[in-house]
Amino acid sequence: MQKTLKSEVVFTGVGLHDGRDVTLRVRPAAAETGIWFCRTDIADSDGFISANWQFAVHTALCTRLLNAEGVGVSTVEHVMAALAGCGVNNAVLELDGPEVPIMDGSALEFVRGFLKAGLQEQSQPVRAVEILKAVEVRENGAYAALVPFSGLEMDFAIDFPDAAIGQQSKLLNLANGSFVHELCDSRTFCRNSDVALMQSKGLALGGTLLNAVVVDGAEVLSPGGMRYVDEPVRHKMLDAMGDLALAGGPIIGRYVGRRAGHTVTNKLLRKLFMQTASFRMIECDLEMSQRLPGAGLVQEDTHFFA
């Protein structure tokens, strides 16, 4: 059945790109609501923005959603990944600024907050997007595809010139809490040579060595180094999880990414929903629900609460 939070959860921090202080309140919502953002600082126009692929605008460095009145919210991918990874189907995310707080650069604090609040089962079944035929997108050396699979699986590979990253790949079945256990604490990353360029364009103004992994050749500049040897590819999978969560329901299929980012993944969803023979919407029975990312998760299941 669909799930929401048992109680409101509040997060405070700064936006990664605009550097502004922001408070995010994630509130429970009724069954069939889906996920919505609400800009509480907007008074003269509609502040509600649906967390749906149709409202995503193409940006290389984050996922941004924009409603019909031009009201937007940026860097939604980490909190969307946390909601999907914890199995939250219905919630309203209120924030008093244009960007979701970056926290530590991962989805860890969101996951902690959601599991501490607890999940409430609701009266309606989960509807999932089952992939029936392969769909793929190729663009500027990047590749992304969705192919049939019995649950949700990710197969991702990246290739960076910096020796601290290099070539990395990972294959992961997202059933039964794998997102929480293996991906949610992997942080966003960048090359030190790109920082000045991003900031000259008004981006990464809230970025620090504490909320992003910054690499320079073979050196990791962030204190403590990598959390995992393959933290960068894990984070790319986290991002993809958040971007796929804009499908409007869990995906039953395998996502394949090769140097893929936010824009390519969103174009993949757009292509999928244009090709109606490539998917179908299904109501998840008990057996299928056990293959979903948030199945059976409780606070005590994860080592993050030791």
Please, could you describe this protein's structure?
The chain is of the alpha+beta class. 22% of the residues lie in helices and 31% in strands. It is built from seven helices and 20 strands. It has helices spanning 77-86, 108-117, 178-183, 192-200, 231-244, 262-274, 286-289, and strands at residues 3-5, 9-14, 21-28, 35-39, 48-50, 56-57, 64-66, 72-74, 91-95, 119-121, 127-131, 135-139, 142-147, 152-159, 167-173, 189-191, 213-216, 219-220, 251-258, 279-283. Strands 11, 12, 13, 14, 15, 19 and 20 form a seven-stranded mixed sheet that branches. It has a five-stranded mixed sheet with strand order 2-3-9-4-5, with helices on one face. A three-stranded antiparallel sheet has the order 6-7-8, with no helix packed on it. Strand 12 and strand 13 (142-147) form a beta hairpin. The longest helix is centred in the C-terminal third of the chain and has 14 residues, at 231-244. It starts with a strand and ends in a 17-residue tail after the last helix. The mean pLDDT is 92.
